[in-house]
Design brief:
homodimer, about 240 residues, Chorismate lyase, 6-stranded antiparallel sheet, two-stranded antiparallel ribbon, 11 strands, DNA-binding
DNA sequence: TAAAATTACTTGTAAATACAAGTGAAATAA
DNA sequence: TTATTTCACTTGTATTTACAAGTAATTTTA
């Protein structure tokens, strides 16, 4: 199964400390054991410990202070909608309701919001859906999602009303987001958006085209999000 | 001038190699000199060289292959304006020209684009500047930058025409971007933006308010960027 | 009592050394 | 000629050692 050997020590220490932070053994503000303490605990030398801490610091789990120690920062915040997690976590799930405009259905496609598709993606077709997201009962997001129809059994019959698409992909299909590309524009609302957002002519709308890459090689999710930023600006950290 | 001493060796090597990549001494696909060669050139030992290369690899300037060497990847695409590095690297420096609308000057401030300021920031005042960025001779970005006037000697007399603000902060003041927050909206161009972007009434414009945190605790850079996305969408990876 | 110095920690930098492991070309053997 | 082996070179991991520099509590001194 897992080959303990072959995995470098600094990596093991990193994984252990990281899990201790994500699981709450250490919480924000805590002081990590000193490097020398970690040395004796993990039976390695300081450069090895420091390599593990380097990575944790780089990823934002800890902040190090000369003379004081390593301070735990907790799980690093994502970049909200502008980064990994999708619209749901950008707002806070409480006030977000979802209306399915077009239920997940299988369609043909040849390109996805200006992103080119590879041969397998084109041949497989896509699962297409449209959703309107309301924040405090006001329509704010209108999004079109296209997912290659590769190895996603029973996907179209699932319920997306109150669940995050990404949660479902992770839980049932072991698909996790790794990164992606996005293009951002400001446009004026067309007839459809005027209707959905209940706004007048010439209303500015933020458009976001995204290609979201996953841990499955060659499997990307494509989405186009329109956002009425009148009351809610798109917020993110980086 | 700047104190050579005090700057760690691995940092100096990093800066040198980085500048060699960004300035085109090494181009994409090139093989960097081997670690041992770099040792003899820079008169340091391998761990020091490796620390510099670690950072270059981490930031995407190079990719390392055991047994082969370090391959130059060029200037990392990064998340462009949506992430760390600012507008300059979002487009590719070649086609970007900068017009200074308001030269860096010291002003009073009490808030920064809806971001609240702490007491020290308010008391210190800010360095204020406005710039218009042209991509292929067309005005695309209009940005207002406000930097707390804390320990930035001779800052207002520096030249920002063709240099990245962040490069200057890093090189001369050892200030590095660590992360930040941003708010994104779509608006319609006001009189000023219509004038700068040479667009008509009702033209949609993307507005980006950012608070950019640095390695100096409590020292943040605030910027407001307006972007005409007619021809150039804001592009980023994550 | 209050300021200053000491001290015992912490992380930061750097060298010297050793071996493991991957790569690719040159030398060797079939 | 072709397949194999060897070898020189690359980066990866890890230890040991040493000192610098920042922090904070303690001790000393005024």
């Amino acid at each position: 199964m897992e080959q303990d050997t072959n995995i470098p020590q600094h990596r093991k220490v990193y994984e252990i400390l990281r899990s201790h932070i994500t699981s709450g053994v250490f919480v924000e503000g805590d002081l990590l054991p000193s490097e020398n303490e970690l040395c004796t605990v993990h039976l390695v030398t300081r450069p090895t410990i420091r390599k593990a801490l380097d990575r944790l610091a780089n990823e934002g789990y800890i902040v190090r202070h000369q003379g004081k120690g390593s301070i735990v920062m907790g799980i690093p915040k994502g970049a909200g909608i502008l980064s990994l997690t999708g619209t749901t976590s950008a707002i806070g799930q409480d006030n977000l309701t979802t209306h399915i405009i077009i239920k997940p259905e299988i369609r043909n496609w040849s390109e996805a919001f200006t992103f080119p598709l590879n041969k397998l993606e084109v041949e497989s077709g896509c699962i297409y859906m449209e959703r309107l997201r309301l924040v405090n009962s006001k329509p704010v997001f209108y999004d079109i999602t296209m997912i290659p129809n590769i190895n996603l059994s029973r996907f179209t019959s699932r319920n997306f009303e109150n669940k995050s698409l990404f949660d479902i992909l992770r839980k049932y299909y072991h698909i996790e987001v790794r990164g992606g590309e996005q293009k951002l524009l400001a446009i004026v609302a067309d007839e459809r958006l005027k209707d959905y957002f209940k706004v007048g002519s010439g209303h500015p709308v933020l458009q976001l085209n995204r290609k979201i890459e996953t841990n499955r090689p060659g499997f990307s999710i494509y989405s186009q999000v329109f956002c009425n930023t009148d009351e809610y600006a798109l917020y993110g950290t980086f």
